[in-house]
Amino acid sequence: MNLACEDCPDLPESVGDEPYFTLDADPAPWYDPKAPETWGFYGVLGLGVTGFAGAPIAREATDLIGDGAYYSPPRLGAREIAYTVALVARDECSLAFGLQYLSWVLNGSSSCQGCAGDQMCLFSCCPGMAPSAYDPGDAEIRHLYDVTLIEAPTIAPDAIQEFGGLLIATTTFTLAAQKPHIYTDPLASLGDWTLITSGQRLNGYDPDEVIKECRQPPNCLDDEQCPPPADPPRPPQIVDPCYPTGPDNWWRTRIHLSPLDQPQYMEAVPVVEIDTGAEELRRVVVRFWLNPQDLPCDQVNDPCQACLDITVPFLPAKSRLTVDGRTQRAQVECPDITTGRASYATPQLYTQLGGPFVWPVFECPTGFCIEVLAPRATVADDARIRVQLVPRSQVG
């Protein structure tokens, strides 16, 4: 049995692993001085993995009445990832503990109420192969989200071998990523925080009123001599009383991303974070424009051409909003004065004119101009925003 690792010299530096010296100075995470069976478990060695080389695409077929069939639009199902590993131990008691420890680690936080799963980090290849502009491992690291265990590790009796005075047991387990895409780290060119008060002053502006003035291009088949029938009466629409409207005096801050800073063959999703600072924040608007010509952002500001609007009616003081396109979840982290701990809540997000928010995916490297609007009356001096773009792929 060959248990040698492949040569990957930059791996220890990439994971922050210092050289091993002694058990006292560098004990294993499972080591318990009160449990002798933990002394004889030497660890887990990866032997193989499947689940990254293909995309879990699913399409449903419906036969037509005539010849042929109709296939539904493609969608990605859950990504199942199967690992084969070897547990190395001194004796049977230590091997039993090793299996117990591995099972406990793989349970992660999936057993807690309301948890969707964990974040999984891995390298797509041996770290350190990217250009020197990257720290070792930054270019090769990948992330999956909402990962949970669906098949626990077990050891068959015939899967245990003795080798050099050790017991080596082969086992398999399967994980499932409920969010099937494979993400890189966020683009470094959009990694900095920006003070909301660092922008320009904009007076008497109504972000919704300018949208109402947008006109759709006419249909080339519209016939003036044959007007379409009138629309039937619509039931009254319920208006959210918490959705802010009307003109205000704003801070307007712009953020620029060049198309040259994006990968050419990967789609991407945004991650927006807002720290409110010392004051509550009301009616924050974040707008995205495509900018394939890499123009200055003061030349890319027609609201009718914006490809994404995010409106947040209210955020409490000293809170952080995260709108995460990777998990397609929005969350506000608020300080709890009574316990000193953080509490979490799900905010209501809107798009243009109070419409329901739809999670965006940017399929091409077009570059962006991003505009942040916040009323000056409710913006703290230390309020800040960070917008990141995260590339993703279906294989990797």
How many DSSP-defined strands? 21
Q: Quick check: average pLDDT?
A: 90
Report helical residue fraction. Answer: under 10%
Q: Low-confidence segments, ≥5 residues, pLDDT <50?
A: none
- What is the gyration radius calculated from CA atoms? 27 Å
Contiguous helical run count: 3
Please state the structural category: mainly beta
Q: Quick one: overall form?
A: globular
Element-by-element helix/strand order: HEEEEEEHEEEEEEHEEEEEEEEE
Protein architecture, described:
- There is one protein chain.
- With 396 residues, this protein is mainly β.
- The chain folds into two domains: 11-183, Beta Barrel (Elongation Factor Tu (Ef-tu), domain 3); 188-213 and 240-393, no CATH class.
- 7% of the residues lie in helices and 38% in strands.
- The protein has three helices and 21 strands.
- The strands form four sheets. Strands 1, 6, 7, 8, 9, 10, 11, 14, 17, 18, 19 and 21 form a twelve-stranded antiparallel β-sheet that branches. Strands 12-13-20-15-16 form a five-stranded antiparallel β-sheet, with no helix packed on it. Strands 2-5 form a two-stranded antiparallel sheet.
- The two termini are 29 Å apart.
